[in-house]
Automatic annotation (TrEMBL):
This is LysR family transcriptional regulator. InterPro entries: LysR_HTH_N, Molybdate_resp_trans_reg, WH-like_DNA-bd_sf, WH_DNA-bd_sf. Transmembrane segments: none annotated. GO terms for molecular function: DNA-binding transcription factor activity. Residues 32-89 form the HTH lysR-type domain. It comes from Telmatocola sphagniphila. Pfam families: HTH_1 (PF00126). It comes from the Bacteria. The lineage of its organism: Bacteria, Pseudomonadati, Planctomycetota, Planctomycetia, Gemmatales.
């Protein structure tokens, strides 16, 4: 193990891939969270100060990379379109959140000041 020095910190960035393509990372996770809350890609994009076109492109990339639909989109109609996370999309978000918590604990343990031996 590395000798831990006071000026060393562990930083971890988590993402999930399938066949070498990113399915979820910090930004995509945030986008899915906003879609789940607002049931709208447009509203999610506004929350993230992102263009609708960029958000739509990310949703397409997420679904393609996942090899299945994580975000289901409906178009038109009286109330307009909408977007929801599928059950598999909700599961992917839960898994990602679990990984974030586990890696945060690991980083926190590493970043604690080393105890001096007596």
């Amino acid at each position: 193990m590395l000798d831990q020095k006071n000026d060393w910190n562990l930083k971890v960035r988590v993402w999930i891939e399938r066949d070498g393509e990113k399915v979820l990372g910090p930004g995509r996770y945030e986008l899915l969270g906003h879609i789940d809350t607002h049931h709208s890609i447009s509203a999610a994009a506004k929350q993230m100060k992102m263009s609708y076109r960029r958000a739509w492109s990310l949703v397409q990339d997420i679904n393609r990379a996942a090899g299945e639909t994580l975000v289901e989109v409906s178009t038109g109609g009286k109330g307009g379109g909408g977007a929801i996370l599928t059950p598999r999309g909700k599961e992917a978000v839960r898994i990602y959140e679990s990984l974030l918590k586990k890696t945060a604990r690991l980083a926190s343990d590493f970043n604690k000041p080393a105890r001096k031996s007596s």
